[in-house]
Amino acid sequence: MNELLTLMKSELVLTGIIFLLLFIRIGKGLKNETLLPLVQVLLLVNFIFGFVFNKEGRLFGDMFYTTSLIAFQKNILNLGVYLISLLCTDWLKKTPHLPEFFLLLLSALLGMFFMISSANLLIFYLSLELASIPVAALANFDLNKKRSAEGAMKMILSSAFSSGILLFGISLVYGSTGTISLPEISQRLDGSSLQVLAFVFFFAAFAFKLSIVPFHLWTADVYEGSPIATTAFLSVISKGAVAFIFMTMLFRVFQPLVDTWYMMLVILSIATMVIGNLFALRQQNIKRFLAFSSIAQVGFILVAISSNDHMGSTAVIYFVLVYIFSNLAAFGVASVVAEQTGKETINDLKGFYKTNPFLSWILALALFSLAGVPPTAGFFGKLFLLTAGGAKAAYWFITVAALNMIISLYYYLRVVRAVFMDKNETPIEQLKISAPVRLGMIICGAGIILTGLLSWIYDYIHSL
Amino acid sequence: MNLLLLIGAPLLTALAVLVARNKQQVKWISLGGSFLQLGLALALLLAFRQERAANNTAQMLFEQQYKLFQSLHISFHFGVDGISVAMILLTSFVVVAGVLVSWNIEKMTKEFYFLLLLLGLGAYGFFISLDLFILFFFLEISVIPKYLLIGIWGSGKKEYSANKLALMLMGGSALILVGMLGLYFTAGNSFDIMTLSKATISPETQHILFPLLFAGFGVFTALFPLHTWVPDGHSSAPTAGSMFLAGISMKLGGYGCLRVATYLLPEGAKEYATFIIVLSAIAILYGAFATMMQKDLKYINAYSSVSHVGFSLLGIGMLTQTAFTGALMQMVSHGMMTALFFAVIGMIYDRTHTRMVAEMGGLMKQLPFISTVFFIVGLCSLGLPGLSGFVAEMTVFVGSWENADAFHRVATIAAAMSIVVTAVYILRAIGRTVMGPVTNEAHLTLKDANWNEKLAALLLVAGILAIGIAPGWLNDLLRPAAEVIMNRIAGQ
Asked: Is B151 on the interface with A (CB under 8 A)?
């Protein structure tokens, strides 16, 4: 019993919060003004609690396992959700169904936690579903917007489709190895063509979730239609969680098939970087722009995953941490602008610096970090991804990746240019920044600068 | 002397600027901070000479090492040899002059000075780094300030130029990055220059990595044909921005070509030396002839920079100790000279609101100080003995001549021919703007330089003269360091 409490600590705390919200909803209910700060505090507690009482072990007949690395991964996601609750305060306050929003959001997060901890295909599949179905409902949260409903529809269809493919892959794996326990599967894989086929289905399902080209087509529409809080969750938290489990699957379970997946990763990584970048070049809507740029970022993550070693996994986890700060800061600014003015395009940001210097600097920091320019942490993150990818001595591969960094710099600079340089007769007026939003942005800004300069963070992740 | 001061001083100055309350405070803090940096650089020079006089023959002095990212074997390792000391000195001169020249910036003063100081910080950090990763970090740190400086405070087609500059420099960085990772993995997981210089890297690998690194740094230092950002970038930048770009940033590239590419990959350098010589000879001549066609003063100096920096690269390509020394001297000399050139052009533009040679004339009457400085810097550019340009270019030629075969001789002669062309365009530009009758009535009411402009100009003129009249001290600094690099190429 005691073991259950400590090993499943993250999940239990989260479940506790979910139930608390549920009771509040069923009971008298609270006004958004009081409920939101409460949720924010709870999430902060949840995040801080993630640092303590971390034990390693297995549960439920080896279906569920946790290590200090997994605990850290979960806590990165906790941090992200906490930041979203801060940064999207403006929108959250107005939404008429605030408890439901967080119920769904945290359920999805819970699903991700179980997914990261799963050591068995059954629990893996269940948790994957738990992590995707609530998100589709979240995408539909702007109830009076058609686009939001459209995005949710696309999301649920593509989710269902990818789940189907995944199930097919699972059944083939089970058929060829006779087990659903992940450690045993990795022992019984021998590279027969049936197993390779099963793996391809597996891979495709992950590719859907990570929006790897050519499985990325749902991304932009869903991102554009969803409320920004959901978009941020989808593009940062959900991507991060899937990247973690994808990496574990490849490194631990499908290790015997490394020759197969190395080439797949290289080809898809290049396609993802190039196509994500090329589409991002022409976007006007900020959410779409960030959607395509996040596709390109996934391409860079794949570069590190292709390394197939500890350096690669450290680089990916570190990058996701940096990415949470950077991308959420960008979404945070977009959210403030969109909520108070209804404007969502890059052209609307022209002359933004004149009226909103604080938001402009945060946005610039975030974009530079996404582009990988020092002194931001994004520089270190990108560099370590490429370093990990270079371990296999595929120089042409990291050359392509490095050249893609130039393309991405171009479009990130486009936004910076609009904000700082372009003249505008009627720039966006001075926006109100509420205290939680400001706090969230300062955390992000500090994270963007300090995560890189404090090098022990990387070393700490490496030591886990 | 603790080298951390060289990073600490600009960093503190930049942070102090951020919390300053008004424009006056911003300016004076920046000026105080930049003079502090100049003092530190001079102190470093003295301390360095003392150590050397006391027969301290270690390759790098004042070394310190702090572990960062231990799992990747990266450490904040720094130290200086003669080359670094000379470059740091150059940087501090240009920083002070840049701050002084920008005294009248009204638009977003705080941000302007902050970015300017950040640029200086990047250069100091770059020149003292002995770890490739940290070196790369400091190299890249300067890209964003340059982009913003040009894009916000620039003139003309500034957005285009800023974009072009940022993207081309980023492209160069990408090449450096790949080359750097190649070194890291072939030489036993280390970014440390000292460690790498002792590692054995097979000639085949060197032949792959050298062009990546050399071309990468070459973008920064306007290696032909990767120089195209230079004319646009320099001409669109605000005065201090051009001074930093041409005076410091281009030197980062030259330093990298020598310290990283040539020093760490000697076999690669030998393999590609011919190629470098051809490219730099083309750059020298092309730059000179292209300058002939320019009508805008800033474009004149931008193209002539391409030509002058070509001498540095030519010296590196010649692979002799004297040529290396000359190349380094040329970097220092050109840094001072071109910064002064841009400063003077800025001063003229602030008064006449034009940079077109044809729209000016007889400025000497109203602007005697500025015109005199303009004259001095022009003479320095065309290589008049007694000024720094002559010393540096002469050393390059002497070094080049040490290679006795026909190819090197022809390249040297071709490069030397450019001096004639330089004389033509410099004398023509100065003659038309400064001499003769006043062609524009409006120019009769112009006021000569302010105290800050005078101070900036005098400082840089002093630098030029110090190298031109008594080049011995610079030679003493650079020659032993060049010898270390040469020894590695000779395989000792």
From this structure: yes
CA B363 to chain centre: 29
Question: CA distances (Å), B347 to each of A226, B343, B369, in order?
Answer: 54, 6, 11
Q: How far is A148 from chain B (nearest CA, A)?
A: 36
Q: What is the DSSP string of B413-445?
A: HHHHHHHHHHHHHHHHHHHHHHSSS---GGGGG
* ipTM value greater than 0.85: yes
Please state the separation of Cα A401 from the chain's center in Å. 21
- Is residue A257 within 8 Å of residue A196, measured between CB atoms? yes
In this prediction, residue A326 carries a pLDDT of: 92
> At residue A298, does pLDDT exceed 80?
yes
Q: What share of chain A is helix, strand, coil (3-state, %, to 5)?
A: 80, 0, 20
- The predicted model gives B336-354 an average pLDDT of 87
CA pair distance B92, B82, nearest whole angstrom? 16
The CA distance from B380 to B395, in Å, is 15
Range of the domain at A59: 2-463
Please, are residues B333 and B388 in contact by the beta-carbon 8 Å criterion? yes
The crossing angle, in degrees rounded to 10, of helices B321-352 and B368-381 is 150
Spell out which residues of chain B touch residue A379, defining contact as CB-CB under 8 Å: 137, 140
- CA-based radius of gyration for chain A: 21
Kindly indicate the confidence band of residue A1, based on its pLDDT and cuts at 50, 70 and 90. low
Domain borders along chain B are 4-490
- Specify the pTM: 0.91
Task: Give the Å distances, CA to CA, from B453 to A166, B240, B421, B459.
Answer: 71, 12, 30, 10
Quick check: B473 contacting A, CB < 8 Å? no
Contacts of B171 in chain A (CB under 8 A): 403, 406
Q: Please check the confidence at residue B492 and state whether its pLDDT lies above 70.
A: no
Residues facing B80 on adjacent strands: B61
Segment of A298-302, B107-111, B471-475 carrying the highest mean pLDDT = A298-302
Tell which residue, B140, B223, B227, B228, has the closest CA to residue A409: B140
* Structure confidence at residue B487 (pLDDT): 86
Q: How many CA atoms lie within 13 A of B448 on its CB side?
A: 15
Structural domains counted in chain A: 1
Residue A285 three-state SS: strand
Chain B CB within 8 Å of residue A458 CB: yes
